[in-house]
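In response to the reviewer comment on reproducibility (Comment 2.3), we provide here a single inverse folding case reported in full, input and output, so that an independent group could reproduce the run without further information from us. The structure tokens appear first.
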């Protein structure tokens, strides 16, 4: 099974938001920011 980081983080956000875990929500947002920065720096042909 393959998935993307966007899909995985989206699922994690849904689960965590229902649980009310504020610390985990912050961590997921930080991961999303790191991934966004990595995507901006990709060398494309």
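Designed residues, in position order:
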């Amino acid at each position: 099974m393959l998935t993307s980081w966007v899909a995985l983080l989206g699922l994690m956000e849904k689960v965590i938001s229902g649980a009310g875990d504020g610390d985990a929500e912050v961590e997921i947002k930080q991961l999303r920011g790191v991934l966004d920065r990595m995507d901006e720096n990709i060398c494309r042909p």
